[in-house]
Amino acid sequence: MENDLAIVDLPCAADLVTKFANDHVADVVDALNDYPEETAAEILALLPLERGTDVLDQPNLENPADLVKLLPEGRAAALLEGMSADRRADIFRHLSEPPRGALLARLSPEARTAVEQLLSYPEASAGSIMTTEFVSVLSTATVGQTLHYIRVVERTRETVYAIYVLDSKTKRLIKAVTLRQLIMGDPEASIMSLGPQRKPVVVSPLMDREEVARLISKYDLLALPVVDEKHHMLGIVTVDDIIDAIVDEGTEDAQKFGGMEALDEPYMQIGIVGMLKKRAGWLSVLFVAEMLTAWAMQFFQGELEKAIVLALFIPLVMSSGGNSGSQATSLIIRALALGEIRLRDWWRVALREIPTGAALGAILGVIAIIRIVLWQWLGFFNYGVEWPRLALAIGCSLVGIVTFGSLSGSMLPFIMKRIGFDPASASAPFVATLVDVTGLVIYFSIALVFLNGTLL
Amino acid sequence: MENDLAIVDLPCAADLVTKFANDHVADVVDALNDYPEETAAEILALLPLERGTDVLDQPNLENPADLVKLLPEGRAAALLEGMSADRRADIFRHLSEPPRGALLARLSPEARTAVEQLLSYPEASAGSIMTTEFVSVLSTATVGQTLHYIRVVERTRETVYAIYVLDSKTKRLIKAVTLRQLIMGDPEASIMSLGPQRKPVVVSPLMDREEVARLISKYDLLALPVVDEKHHMLGIVTVDDIIDAIVDEGTEDAQKFGGMEALDEPYMQIGIVGMLKKRAGWLSVLFVAEMLTAWAMQFFQGELEKAIVLALFIPLVMSSGGNSGSQATSLIIRALALGEIRLRDWWRVALREIPTGAALGAILGVIAIIRIVLWQWLGFFNYGVEWPRLALAIGCSLVGIVTFGSLSGSMLPFIMKRIGFDPASASAPFVATLVDVTGLVIYFSIALVFLNGTLL
């Protein structure tokens, strides 16, 4: 029976391998992601080596380190050896012992050095997403020699669309030429005659990938060279890595703005315990902060007992501040991320948010007053004899609270950035909590002014 | 005096033109963005024509349509004629009469047709961000002929890194070859011998740019061909357009999630009135919805009068539901946008969010009970003789409300998507409002159960 099963099982994975032969590698990866990891690893072991390398090289492949663990060690080492340097380093980043050390030992010395070098850079830095496989030539080369060289090394380079020219003596990066410029050039001419005369745009390996993305997008580059302090090339960041980085940053920012830690894993893949860890922290912090509302209300307990009608509008008035704050925060986080505004622009923003908030508060205030007047006239509810004063107090509170909400919501990302946090940590729930406590105090204070001597 | 001023003024703009001569065009654009529009237009008029075209071609240039308006008509027409088709169409999209019609009339017939064609596609579609300047050759061409052709047309094409092969009879797109494959090929060989044998990835002009971005990223392309129903090529979307599109979508989603309409303009550039229009709508809708809280509380007015202590915890209990809902919503919006989950996965998500929410609620419940017990024991506040029951009621309410918050927060994006809205419209304030009303009902109902016959 066991033999029967094995016979039934084996052609199955082999069949899939045949089926995949002509598909785009990205579609093969899509299919593999839908299989259990054991089957996916089996297929990966049976694919032709070059094809297997391509599959492992795809950033969309889920949990590549887990697949590598399931492969025979010799096969795993051969696949890793053929991969691009950046994805290989990424797999080692997520690979645990065993077989981490054993696989690292099986790599060629160059591949091993590349992995160790790339892993030495902090996550989300240019160094951690760069690849060391780029095309560089010395400044003494001609256009024709460069083209010939590209034809020789093409297979082993992630991109050949950018060619980096190094000073023939110091080996420093002095020029970047595109393949487009190269094929337009006279084969006899010096490589130095091509391209613009200005210095190439470069980044340090420690630069944040968000900043790298901004530069690639600004200068419309297909790749950006990463250099050390002496302008020696360490690697390149390519545009496809940057798209992945931008999408990842977008996900992180959205989750942080939602009031939690960034998940760092697809939603359906993280376990319930992992999910709780990412969410419980911020939720508890916000909860403890929100306890200040209970404390604030204790102070106004006397007023509440005298005029229970005030309690009815607490959620309404309070939430308006949070909502307008959430709008302002999302605007400012994004404007800061895009570089539209800088830290020093905080007062310009404040000067915009105060009138905007006051106008928005006035709109809500008018709606609230109309509601109370209507309900009272139509007899839906009796707000007591002092209902005109109550309506006025609520209208004025809304102006105050929405103005305060807009202002503090817009200032919070600046404060987070100033004290060294990600502005995106200024989440919607964070702003709401901040504004809730203050909103209550504003509400009761204004109510005291309007209703003093009557209800209160 | 007037002459003096003119003499002082003119060399100034001219000086700047000289200063910009060797800068990267993206840096020139950065500098222009900092000048008043009149000065920027003056500089644009004085720059060499080709340089001016490059400047106008940069996506980072602010308000290019306004600059074009300030230019002499002849100069404006010459600049527009030389631009890439997609950016030119984008300028006409934002250009009003006059000089829109006059400038359109001055364009060459091909350029005019291209503008009209691109403007006919809906915003944010593949058609609206594509360019019509791509390299295509017939299937009868050799590798050498194709390379020669590229050298001839290079100046007028946005990218030459992707070459599209059309069937020599039907003119349908049958193959996509990269420049990389081309320079590796034998010059005598047929262009059809290069590249993979599978069909090229194509998109329809009506496909949403988000979907185009996903395909470009998935298949690691530098450009994606846009074809009509008969597989005739209409244009290409290049990777740099896609980066801009991804960043724009990220901004829109963040602003919608913050509870407002997408701004579509940089924060510092939109006027206060424009800002109010984008923010007041949602804020008012949420405000009116939140009025249900006042209505819900009217029902429990009797209970509130008997046990005013219940009012103290309303903001605390209510906000926890909104916060957990905001977390769940941001998770699901992002997972839907990335294609990690689909509409049909809603029940899987529900099965994850219910236990997660219950566990998060239990954590907050324990914190709340500890707080009440501590305050009571330490004498900070007297919650009355029934304080143990009160603490229990609040703890249990939190479990119920946070579970409900997580569940409804996670389901809202699915519902939005199902009824045809952008899931990102399920904003944090929207979820909070939804959960506030239900949270109050849950709170008072549980309080009734626990405190019935004692406080209530």
Task: For this entry, give a set of tags.
mainly alpha, MgtE N-terminal fold, Tetracycline Repressor, domain 2, two-stranded antiparallel sheet, 21 helices, 6% strand
Name of the CATH superfamily of the largest domain in chain A: SLC41 divalent cation transporters, integral membrane domain
What radius of gyration of chain A results from the CA coordinates? 31 Å
Q: Tell me the total number of β-strands of chain A.
A: 5
> DSSP strand (E) fraction of chain A?
5-15%
pLDDT average of chain A, as an integer? 85
Structure commentary:
The structure is a homodimer of 456-residue chains. With 456 residues, chain A is mainly alpha-helical. Chain A has three domains: 2-120, MgtE N-terminal domain-like (MgtE N-terminal fold, Alpha Horseshoe); 135-253, CBS-domain; 272-451, Orthogonal Bundle (Tetracycline Repressor, domain 2), CATH 1.10.357. Chain A is 64% helix and 6% strand. Chain A contains 21 helices and five strands. Chain A has helices at 2-20, 25-34, 37-46, 49-57, 64-70, 73-82, 85-94, 100-106, 109-119, 126-129, 143-153, 179-184, 209-218, 239-257, 272-299, 301-306, 309-312, 314-337, 346-378, 387-418, 428-451, and strands at residues 135-138, 162-166, 173-178, 223-227, 233-238. The first copy, chain A, has a three-stranded mixed β-sheet. In chain A, strand 4 and strand 5 (233-238) form a beta hairpin. In chain A, helix 4 packs across helix 6 and helix 18 packs parallel to helix 20. The longest helix of chain A has 33 residues, at 346-378. Residues 1-11 of chain A have low confidence and may be disordered.
